[in-house]
Structure formats: structure tokens, C-alpha cells
Amino acid sequence: MKNILLFFILIFLNLQNVNANEYIKDEREKIQSERNSLAIGWRDNLGYELPKPGSYELYNIRMSGDGKIIDENGNENTLHNLMGGKITLLSFIYSNCTDTNGCPLATSVFYKIQEKIKKDNKILSKLKMISLSFDPTYDTPQIMSLYGKDLSYIKADWDFLTTESLEYLDPILKDYDQPVIRKYNKDGGYDGVESHLLRVFLIDDKKLIRNVYNVDFLHADLLINDIKTLLLGNE
Amino acid sequence: MHLRKFGVSILGAVLLTISSVTVADETCMSPYMAKIVGQEDYVYVWTLGVEGLGDEQDKLVTIDVNPKSKTYAKVVSVLSVGGRNEAHHSGLSDDRHYLWAGGLDSNKIFIFDVHSNPRKPTLHKVITDFVEKTGGIVGPHTFYALPGRIMVSGLSNNKDNGGRTGLAEYNSKGEFIATHWLPTDGDLRGAKKEGKFADGYGYDIRVQPRRNVMLTSSFTGWSNYMMDFGQMLQDGEAMKRFGNTMVVWDLHTRKPKKVIDVPGAPLEIRCAWGANNNYCFTTTALTSKIWLIYEDDNGEWQGKAVADIGDASKVPLPVDISITADDQGLWVDTFMDGKARYFDISDPFNPVQKFEEQIGSQVNMISQSWDGKRAYFSTSLLGNWDKTGEADEQWVKLYAWDENELALTHKWTIDFYKEKLGRAHQMRFGAYSLYTSKQNKGKEVTMLDK
User: Fold this and answer.
1) Best residue of B214, B441, B448 to probe chain A, by most A CBs closer than 10 Å
2) What is the distance, to the nearest Å, from the Cα of residue B7 to the centroid of all Cα atoms in its chain?
3) How is domain A41-234 classified at the CATH fold level?
4) Interface test with B, best of A109, A180, A215 (most B CBs within 10 A)
5) How far is CA B288 from CA A136, B187, B262, B358, in A?
6) What is the mean pLDDT of chain B?
7) Helix %, strand %, coil % of chain A (to 5)
């Protein structure tokens, strides 16, 4: 009788174990699936070996676009003026964007870049990062200031910009081939951004576009590699 | 399974971050490209002009393919480009605003605006200095979208009109950036030669960005593709001038890494979409085989012949191929017998043919919707290689595909000779959903530069 009882207890425990294993397996698959839907920029590991900085060429794609912008303090300026003689990473974002693999990804990658280069004054002093809003109606200078407030916490040169209106923004977007789909309300009035194409631009000290990244390539390690390649080319 | 399980795919995201859901589109386009949401509205057919037919010019033909439209299955726009260029392949920019289309003989590249009015494309720009700018590449073939750029593969060169060629990189404005020559025995450009060949020939381009890999295939040069097909088959020397290689490139640096032997003119390349499916397929025109190009357990890219297509001794001539969005099926068109074959590729190392049907006397291209339910076919291969007489049919056909029943059902045919259009070649999809807010569905296009 004691043996029979022990037998059933063991079966019960075993079943519990099977259920636990099934649960763990399901959870693992769920986590893996969620990871698979995330862009490469969210991962620490790029997944392939990067070439040595300076061992490859970043071609001159074309001259970058210019246009009037407004900074976080409400001051007017131009994109080219802000770029100065620095190497620039330019990203178009908007504060209401919720697509994990969209604006939050671009902002996260910029954040990771400053984190990775914070002790490298050589790069830090020669890099400008710009996040420019797609949505001047909602993203006022105050909003952009709030958006960037806790992001640029070190000496990194990172600007959070907007424009006076769509009238000023659209020529810039067109220059950078940045399509955006906008929503309109029943009365035909502007109702915000619906979607856009994620692109980040690497611009050299002569304001030439040297690389264009989308979600496939937007990884901090790869961008830092390209920045180093440009810096080596300038030496 | 010998594939390296690695990497995270980005496909959903890649679909470029436009936050919309991907529902329908061709399955063989650049992963960088924005995707169509829902039913495609138009098919753009890059068409060869024919002497004595209509206006005799090459043209972009727009077909209305939305079943809800009053002009469904009708040609709604014809845009002639002012001459014959040996119109061949075309490719969309990553934002799908522009369609680039090449002339293999004239070396002109026509850039059409397909977004301002998707129903009636306009000619935006013509590149006329392709050979000069690229340093001698001839025959602009594949137009492959990279972020903010287009990579163009050549078929030939202006030195000997043979198959040695390169890739030309352009920016989104249609301005030349750089030439990347294919590796040869004389100049491997740092690539490792795996087998007997390093011919430097070119044809198609595809990428697997998560593995930082670009692949190119190899066809033949101007002296062959402009020759009469029958004459070429009798010319022993000409028949030696076909590509036998594929090249594995470092996508980021544009440097060739490895030359793989793939004998018999490997043409179209189609890469798997799945997160861990690190492989691509090609078919060889002369030896009638499916080849798998895959990353092995050591991270090395390899090539392996994995299936026969029909009876190779009868030279069925595999041409266009199309992979399904779930990586489970591969369509293979064979030009000579006019058939479409469907292979089960759930085990990529052992494709199994499940279905075949004759589409016409000759068939070349296939474009399937993202859900795989619609397959469009067209006829023309090359002006001097198409069949003659009664067998020279020229059309675009739509079939509905039922994968469970393994059945193709013919929906409609547009006869390009009857319509006095020409020879129908490559088909690309267009849709209002690419440019219009879902909130404003059915209303005017709201793109910023409309």
C-alpha cells in the first residue's frame, strides 16, 4: 500500500514537473518571439563581426539638406549652422511616436552611442547628434526640451529640434527623402503623424551624407564604427 | 539541417517602420522597402516596344488590378519613353515613390514617379550617362533598394561586350555614387575563390541584412543577350560565355568576400524571410537546377545544388522564381515549355515539386502577392530570345493560387500584342495604401510632396 501511494505521489510530481517544463518552454518561446520582432538596435550583440574602422570606404552619397529650425530654447537657427564642422547623426522623430522599432529605437541608439563614447573625448568632442521632430504642431520647443531633458545627461552634443510649422519642415523632409503619412480630421485639418520611414543620416564635417541607416543597420556599435572611420579619414 | 541558427529578424520592423501592418505585396523585393497594406491597386509592366506595333516604343504599362475598381483588369495608363532600349528589369526605391527601369541595349535608366498619381505614373528623370559614370558597366539589370540608395547590377562592359561587369550604386536622387567591380581571377578584390571560377559576371542582387550579406549571380554579356537565340545556341564559343559563379559580399563595406561555383548561369536570387532562415535560392538557366546558397554552422556561405527543374536534357530554361512569404514554397517559371512549377521548400535542402501547369507557349516573370493568393505572369525574356511566329505570345495573366488544393485558377489575360503595347516583361505593384493615411482611407493622397 505504501508503495502504491509513493507511486502516485511520484506520478503527480512528475506531471507537475511536465507542466512546469511546458510552461517554461512556452514562456521561452514567447520571449524569443518578442525578441525576434525587435530591431537589431535593441540588442547588445550586432550578430556579426564589424570591420576595422578605417578599413572600408564610406562613399559620398550627396550633400545634406539645410533648413530653418528652432532649438529647445525657442531660438531660430539652421541645420547646417548647428552641424558646424562636426560629424553629425541626424534622426527624424516625433514625441508621440509609439512604434518600438521607430522613433524610440532611433533615440535609444543615440542614447547608447553617448553611453559608449562617454569616456572617449576625441569622439565626444567631434560628434553632434540631432533629433528633429516630424510634428511641429505638437512638438513645440518646450515639448522637445522635455523629450530630451533626461536623455543627454553627459557632455554629448545632442540637440532636440523642431520647426516653426509644416511649411518649414516639409522642404527639409523632401531634401532628405523622408516620407511621412499624416492624418487629417473630418474638417480637413491636420491631425498628427500616422507613420513614417525610419532613417538616420551620417553626415561628415563637410555636410556630406556618408551613410543612411534604417532599422536593419541602426545599431550603436555599427554607427560608432562608421564615425571612427570618418574621423580616421580626416586625420 | 545545416543552417546556422542565428540572428534576429527584423522583418516586421523592417517593413520599414512604417507602423502599418504588412498584409500584401510581392515577396521578392528588397527587405528595406515599404510594403503594401491590403490589395495591390496597380501592376506596372516594363514593356519592350516592337517594330511595326503601335508606337513601337518601350513603355511603362499600368494595369488596374483592384477587383473593386470599375476599370479592373484594364490598361489604365501607357507611358512611352521615346524609343527602344531593350527594356528589361525594374525596381522600386525603398520608399516606393520611384520605379527605376533599365534598357539593356541603350544603357538608359528611366526613373518613373509612381507615387504622385499611382494610376498615372510620369517620367521623372532619365539617366543617360550610366556607362561613362560607372567606368564602363553595360546593361543595367537589377535595381535593388538600399536605404536612400539604389544598387544596380550590370550584365556587361564596354571593353569587350562580354560578361565581366560590376555593381553601380546611386543615391535616391539618381546621382552616381560608386562602382563595385565583381571579382575576377585577375583581380579577386580580396575575395576568396572557392572553386574553379571567378568570372566577374553579374545578374541579380539580393541581401540578408541581419547577416550583413549581399549575394550576386551571373548571366552573360551584351554580345550574347543581344544575339539571336537560335544563332547563339549554335555558336560554341558564345555558349562558353555564361556565368558560373555567385559572389558573397560584405553588405556594409561593399567588399566581395567569397566566389562560389554555381555552374550554368545562376539567375534570379530569392532570400528567405524567416528570422533564422539564413539562406537564399537561385536557379541555373543552362543546367536547370535549384541551388541553395546558405550559411553553414561555421558561419561560412556555401552553395549546393538541391533539386532538378524538369528534364534538364530538354533545356526548359528556368527564368524567374518567387519565394512565398512563409519560406515554404518556391515558384519556378521555365521559359521554353511555358510552365510554372511550385516546389515545397520546407526543407530547403530537399525541394520537392508539388505542382506544375502550362501558363502559355512561353513564360518569364512571376510576381505573387504577399499572401500568395495572386500570381501574375508575363512573357518576354529578351527581344531576340522570345519565341517567334505563333508561339510569340505576349501577355500579362493573373491566376488565383489555392495552396491547399494546389490549384491555379485563371482570372484574366491582357494580350499585349492585341493592345498594340509590345512585349511584357517585369511587373511591379503599386497601391494607394503606401501613401495614404488609414484614417483618410479613400481620400486624396496625403504625401508631403504630392
Assistant:
1) B448
2) 26
3) Glutaredoxin (3.40.30)
4) A215
5) 57, 30, 12, 17
6) 90
7) 40, 20, 40
Give the span between the Cα atoms of A75 and B237, in whole angstroms.
71
State the CB neighbour count (10 A cutoff) for residue B403: 16
pLDDT at residue number B2: 41
Asked if B265 and B219 touch (Cβ cutoff 8 Å), the reply is: yes
- Contacts of B80 by beta carbon, 8 Å cutoff, 6+ apart: B49, B55, B57, B58, B59
Strand blocks (E) in chain A: 62-63, 68-70, 76-78, 87-93, 127-133, 157-161, 180-184, 190-196, 200-203, 208-213
Cβ-nearest to A40 among B10, B20, B437 = B10
Q: Can you tell me which residue has the cell 512585349?
A: B423
* Residue type present at position B401: W
Structural domain boundaries in chain A: 2-37, 41-234
Candidates 2.30.40.10, 3.30.390.60, 2.130.10.10, 2.170.8.10; correct CATH number of B11-434?
A: 2.130.10.10
What's the rounded Cα separation, in Å, for the pair A211 and A200?
A: 8
* Mean pLDDT, range A85-92, rounded to an integer: 96
- What are A93's three cell numbers? 522623430
pLDDT at B32: 56
Q: Residue A198: list chain B partners with CB under 8 A.
A: 16-17
- Please report the pLDDT score of residue B14 as a whole number: 29
Average pLDDT over residues A113-130: 93
**Which residues have C-beta within 8 Å of that of residue B318, sequence separation ≥ 6?**
B267, B283, B284, B285, B288, B309, B332, B333, B334, B335
Q: In this predicted model, what pLDDT tens digit does every residue of B75-84 receive, in sequence order?
A: 999 999 999 9
Lowest-pLDDT range of A212-226, B15-29, B233-247: B15-29
Each domain of chain B, given as residue ranges in start order, spans 11-434
Q: Give the pLDDT of residue A61.
A: 98
SS3 B353: strand
Gap between the Cα atoms of B289 and B244, Å rounded:
13
Q: Is B175 on the interface with A (CB under 8 A)?
A: yes
Per-residue pLDDT, averaged over A67-76, amounts to 97
The shortest C-alpha distance from B384 to chain A (Å) reads 37
E-only strand ranges, B29-121 = 42-48, 59-64, 74-80, 87-92, 98-103, 109-113
CB contact under 8 A, B97 and A59: no
Task: Evaluate if residue B20 carries a pLDDT over 70.
Answer: no
Q: Which of B280-289, B389-398, B426-435 has the lowest mean pLDDT?
A: B426-435
User: Residues with Cβ < 8 Å from A83, sequence gap 6 or more?
Assistant: A64, A128, A130, A203, A207
pLDDT in tens, B203-251: 999 999 989 999 999 999 999 999 999 999 999 999 999 999 999 999 9
Residues with Cβ within 8 Å of B374's Cβ and at least 6 positions away in sequence, in order, are B40, B368, B398, B399, B400, B401
Task: Average the pLDDT over A129-157 and give the result.
Answer: 90
Flag if A215 and B211 touch (Cβ within 8 Å): no
